[in-house]
Amino acid sequence: MKLVLLACLLLAGCNAQPNAANLNAQLARLASVAVNDLNVAAADAANHGDTLAAACYPALANWIITLQQSQGQITAPAGAFSAFQQTRDILKSGMPGIPPSVKLGCAALYLDAQGDVLKFVTMLASISSGQFVPVLP
Asked: What residues does each domain of the chain span?
């Protein structure tokens, strides 16, 4: 999580735009889209009986809202060094990391998704080795 945040801030800083207000508006819009997207995903998961995902998405949406309220509006860094410092400011501000509500809400989905990825990688390895036998109806 910390690495993702640092990468985002560094990329935003390296892509210095003359109109920082425009970038700030885009970042705010991105957070809004993320919350809306998580709400739509939660409704879809509930409609399809995916209890693992239905427990995770609302917890993530609440966390994003809480971060916005506690950290304030994200502002565009001037460059790589200010991006690095903004990341340090967030990490040193007492932000405890991923809250227990997200860990508990998303742990099962995370583990289930790992299993899906492992199955997919195993299938790709079988295909590449020539030993994959497709299931026929």
From this structure: 33-71+101-129
